[in-house]
Amino acid sequence: MPMSSSSAAPAPSPAAPERRRASVAMGFVTGMVAGMQRRGHDPAPLLAATDIDLADSASRIPLDRYAALYNRVIRDLDDEGFGLFERPLGTGSFEFLCRGMLGAPHLAEALERARRFLHIVLPDLAVSIHRLDSHAELRIAETRPLCPTRDDPARVFAFEWLLRLLHGLACWLVGRGLALDAVRFPFARPPHADDYQLIYTAHFSFGGDDLAARFNPTLLDLPIRRDEAALARFLEGAPGKITTLYRRDRDTVVRVRDLLRAALPANLSQEHVADRLHLSPRTLHRRLDEEGSSFRAIKEALRRDIAVARLTKTRHSIARVAADLGYADTSAFYRAFIAWTGLSPERYRKQLAAQAPAQSAP
Question: What is the reported pTM?
Answer without folding.
Answer: 0.67
